[in-house]
Specification:
This protein has 297 residues and is of the alpha/beta class. It contains 11 helices and 12 strands. It folds into 3 domains: 102 residues, FAD/NAD(P)-binding domain (3-Layer(bba) Sandwich); 79 residues, D-Amino Acid Oxidase, subunit A, domain 2 (D-Amino Acid Oxidase, Chain A, domain 2), CATH 3.30.9; 43 residues, no CATH class. It is 38% helix and 20% strand. Strands 9-2-1-12-11-10 form a 6-stranded mixed β-sheet, covered by helices on one side. A 3-stranded antiparallel β-sheet has the order 3-8-4. The structure holds flavin-adenine dinucleotide.
Length: 297
């Protein structure tokens, strides 16, 4: 039976990351995956990467993770597909005091975030329906990555650094044995000192999702529930683009068009004088003609 210090069960983004970091530290690691890397929820993720969290620790971890995704090649020799797009979060009045408290703290944590009024949002992104929006936050360094590239990048790098991988192998049992554990996968078993199991939708996640769903339903909002059941049809880029083309109806009035006229002359430090400003006297004209390259030939 092969022996390892750590067995990681599941090669989603978390499992691949754990294996990569363990292997980077020289820890003998095996990663066991029942399908393929990013074969579960990870491969379906929108992979939005933000550090806009109310929890300060989480924000710091996310900030450093975004920095790693941006600089992924130097860590893994591969692409994460990270694109910096910024992230705009719109908040209702009930969130306003928290947002006003959190945004300065995020800036102190080197997470550049702007606090915006609905008027500023409307000026920058005129297509948004801002009904019920009291304040917004724009995290400048947020973006999105490619979840499959990111997972495969860390998974492959972990293997290069010495981690073993068992793919297409569901774990069927974990049993304590001596000081460690035996992990069974089909007719193969591996012995480890520790087991790390990554499972996305556990009881806590289900409970939290149910809370959000009920809260939204009480407010008469059904889009979240519909999205959960019909994600593929709701998340349709064609529908999204068609939505952008619809005439926009604003619930708040837009700022008036600027009325002040700009005096164009005030835009120049050195005023342009036209041809008149370039005129030269007769003696200089003659001198220029005589000394022009090729004039003496
Ligand atoms: C539609 C969608 C959109 C999302 N958008 C975002 C987003 O924009 N931003 C964001 O941060 N998060 C997003 N998420 C959430 C994010 O994708 C997950 O939090 C993350 O992928 C979880 O990764 P994980 O490695 O913990 O779990 P998983 O991706 O679930 O990986 C677990 C792995 O374990 C394997 N496995 C399970 N059981 C066994 C077993 N017995 N033996 C061996 N292997 C096993 C599975 O095959 C799987 O590959 C989104 C998720 C979905 C579904």
């Amino acid at each position: 039976m092969d022996a390892y210090e750590v067995a990681v069960i599941g090669a989603g983004v978390h499992g691949a990351s754990v294996a990569f970091h363990l292997a980077s530290r020289g820890i003998r690691t095996v990663i066991i995956e029942k399908t393929s890397p990013a074969g579960g929820p990870t491969g379906r993720s929108s992979a939005i990467c933000r550090a806009y969290y109310t929890n300060a620790f989480l924000a710091t971890v996310a900030r450093d993770s975004i920095a790693m995704l941006r600089d992924f090649e130097s860590h893994t020799g591969r692409e994460s597909g990270f694109r910096r797009s910024g992230l705009l979060v719109l908040h209702a009045a009930e969130d306003e005091s928290t947002v006003r408290e959190v945004v300065p703290r995020l800036n102190d944590q080197a997470i550049p975030t702007d606090l915006l009024t609905p008027y500023q949002v409307a000026a920058e992104w005129p297509a948004f329906d801002l009904g019920g929006i009291a304040v917004a936050a724009f995290e400048r360094d947020a973006g999105y990555a490619d979840p499959v590239l990111t997972t495969q990048g860390m998974f492959e790098r972990a293997r290069e650094l010495g981690a073993e991988a068992l793919l297409g192998r569901p774990v069927t049992g974990i049993e304590p044995e001596g000081d460690g554990w035996v992990v069974r996968t089909g007719d193969t078993s591996v012995a480890t000192q520790r087991v790390l199991s990554m499972k996305h939708l556990g009881f806590t996640a289900l409970r939290d999702t149910a809370r959000i769903a009920v809260k939204n339903l009480l407010r008469g909002q059904t889009n979240f529930i519909r999205m959960l059941w019909k994600f593929d049809s709701v998340y349709n880029p064609k529908l999204q683009l068609a939505d952008h083309n619809l005439p926009v109806r604003y619930e708040i009035s837009l700022p008036p068009a600027p009325r002040a006229k700009v005096n164009r002359n005030t835009l120049y430090v050195h005023h342009a004088h036209g041809r008149g400003g370039r005129e030269i006297d007769e003696a200089t004209e003659v001198f220029v003609d005589q000394t022009r390259a090729g004039a003496g030939d």
